[in-house]
Specification:
The complex is a heterodimer. Helices cover 46% and strands 17% of the residues of chain A. Chain A is an alpha/beta fold. By secondary structure, chain B is α/β, with parallel strands linked by helices. In chain B, strand 2 and strand 3 form a beta hairpin. Chain B is globular and about 60 Å long. Classes of the chains: A alpha/beta, B alpha/beta. Chains A and B meet through helix 2 of A and loops of B.
């Protein structure tokens, strides 16, 4: 078993873009995370069910088709409702339609309760490092 | 088959009401021939009594004997999981496919009321799951602590997070406990075989050994199975031998069971399957659908007063047989509703989504559309109980267009009530039993030459 942490991964809503999801899974596993990949068209409930059952440290949400904002609304609240108060939530992809500046998008999703928001040009290895750091920090925080 | 084969074999099924037996003989070609059947009322206090009478009446002493039992209403299992759609769902599937009857399901943390319900002498097994391997620990441990408070002698099967197995074994060391591998080690890889084996072992210890049947069993070459488990295995065997997908309906007084052996997901492109992967063979049991004890819960509302009175009567008198043409018609209505409803609940569904990338179909549960054969067994189909099955299924399909129903299945009633015996025989002689069953079913349809069963 890895000490890097456990993740639940999936593409949210009615989005069935499968390729990026496979790449993400490969990179995250390669880095040493334990990944439960729910693949495409994943509902909020499925993310939370899987996180509960696997005792995941983080939920990694992708959205590629532009409806991410609607699909992601309430995820943090639903996590709290079901006992996952301090789970790490990441989101990334083409989160909105049109030319919105990345910082505006990030602010919007952070307000929804996401810990980190990633744009399509993210270096995945960089993201892995940040995620690793975030998980360690949360674990330390929990021990104190 | 084997050269050491004896030339006769007796199968006995111990039910809650009747102990039924049938004798078969092998002809020179090694094929099975039916050689008679009989039945005696089951005595709750001495299961071996009726067994002995049936066995003797069939001349069972000179050949092999195989038996199954659903006495006392079968093996009562309570299922505990963490998330309802994940570990709890797999726990239910495992309990049913091992031939159990589910008395209750419990998700997340147990409370005092749950524990009181679990502490019932009527529960034989508590199937305790939760957490993938390396997954949730806190809730599973909490529940293990709670289960220490049980006083009943139900056996606990722990099939949860592997990491906790030693701790759970330590916590529950004073109770009957079996620890198996995790039912759901990873979210997309359910593993039910070990739990299945554990349940059958407990069935043997609690029902067979505890009820004086072990003396009988000592003379048998294979262990007794719960009746539904025997049927389940047989359904799978028929499917393997015939290369076809098979369904089986068992319509009883108290429950209606549906078994299916088929690829649950059509490998068509463009389908997104949701949920824990479906096994090739599955069983569901509907405890609110039945012709007698459960007749009162089959319909939500009955307008016809005479029908309502009949339902009340048969619920109170489960031994009643339809006499008048009106009663025969009432039974037919009940039977049709039970079968169709059980099938609807067994079948999965598909919904179409229109997304940015086009039309997407999302499937939940089992796709039964390619089932070609459905065998119907149970007292109702013995004699001339009728059912316009094809019409009933197409009607249901029209009402529930999202459901993946077996619209093209042929329907075979088990007229001589032989299926359970063939299922028992199949455990020793799979090929002759499967050949006999396929031939028998074919003959029924040919003989009746009736379009209602096609």
């Amino acid at each position: 078993m890895s000490d890097k942490g456990k993740l639940v991964l999936g593409v949210i809503g009615a989005d069935c873009h499968a390729v990026g999801n496979k790449i993400l899974e490969a990179v995250l596993r390669d880095y040493g995370f334990e990944v439960a990949n729910l693949r495409v068209m994943v509902s909020q409930q499925e993310f939370i069910d899987a996180a509960l059952e696997t005792e995941a440290d983080a939920i990694i949400v992708s959205s590629l088709y532009g409806h991410g904002e609607i699909d992601c609304q309430g995820l943090r609240e639903n996590c709290i409702e079901r006992g996952l108060e301090d789970i790490i939530l990441y989101v990334g992809g083409n989160l909105v339609v049109g030319k919105t500046p990345p910082e505006v998008i990030a602010a919007k999703f952070k307000a929804m309760g996401f810990d980190r928001v990633w744009s399509p040009d993210t270096d995945l290895l960089e993201m892995c490092k940040v995620l690793d750091h975030d998980i360690r920090e949360k674990k330390q925080h929990r021990q104190h | 088959m084997t050269s050491a084969k004896k030339n006769s074999i007796v199968s006995i099924d111990i039910g809650s009401t009747w102990t039924k037996g049938a004798r078969f003989e092998f002809d020179d070609a090694g094929a099975l021939q039916f050689a008679g059947q009989t039945r005696r009322p089951t005595s709750v206090t001495d299961l071996a009594a009726a067994f002995g009478e049936v066995h003797a009446a069939l001349g069972g002493g000179d050949g092999e004997t195989v038996f199954s039992s659903s006495a006392r209403g079968g093996l009562a299992i309570a299922a505990l999981g963490l998330v309802p759609d994940l570990t709890l769902k797999v726990a239910k599937t495992a309990a049913l496919s091992a031939g159990g009857k589910i008395t209750g399901v419990y998700a997340y943390k147990l409370n005092a009321d749950d524990l009181a319900a679990l502490d019932s002498p009527k529960i034989d097994i508590i199937l305790f799951c939760g957490g993938t391997d390396g997954g949730n620990e806190s809730i599973v441990l909490y529940n293990a602590e709670m289960l220490r408070g049980l006083r009943s002698d139900a056996t606990i099967i722990y099939a949860g997070n592997r990491r906790l197995a030693p701790q759970v074994a330590e916590l529950l060391r004073d109770r009957p406990l079996v620890v198996t591998e995790n039912l759901l080690p990873e979210l997309d890889a359910p593993r039910t075989e070990n739990v299945n084996r554990a349940i059958r072992q407990i069935f043997f210890e609690k029902i067979v050994r505890g009820k004086g049947l072990d003396r009988i069993e000592a003379a048998c070459r294979v262990r007794a199975l719960p009746t539904p488990a025997a049927l389940f295995e047989f359904c799978r065997l028929l499917s393997e031998r015939s290369g076809q997908s098979f369904g089986l309906l068992d319509l009883g007084g108290a429950t209606t069971d549906f078994y299916s052996c088929c690829e649950a997901v059509d490998p068509d492109a463009g389908i997104v399957f949701k949920g824990v992967p479906e096994p090739f063979a599955a069983r569901t049991v509907e405890a609110d659908l039945g012709l007698r004890v459960s007749a009162g819960t089959v319909f939500d509302r009955v307008e016809d007063e005479a029908f309502r009175d009949y339902i009340e009567k048969v619920s109170a008198m489960p031994g009643h047989l339809a006499v008048t043409p009106a009663e025969v018609e009432f039974d037919r209505r009940l039977a049709e509703k039970c079968c169709v409803e059980a099938m609807l609940r067994h079948a999965g569904g598909r919904r179409t989504f229109y997304a940015a990338s086009g039309r997407i179909e999302v499937q939940h549960g089992r796709d039964l559309r390619k089932l070609r054969t459905i065998i119907a067994t149970g007292g109702y189909f013995t004699g001339d109980g009728e059912m316009e099955f094809a019409r009933a299924v197409s009607f249901a399909a029209a009402l529930h267009p999202e459901k993946l129903l077996p619209c093209h299945a042929r329907f075979f009633p088990d007229r001589s009530y032989l299926l359970i015996h063939l299922a028992n025989l199949a455990r020793l002689h799979p090929e002759p039993a499967a050949a006999f069953a396929l031939d028998y079913l074919r003959k029924i349809v040919a003989y009746e030459n009736a379009d209602w069963c096609v």
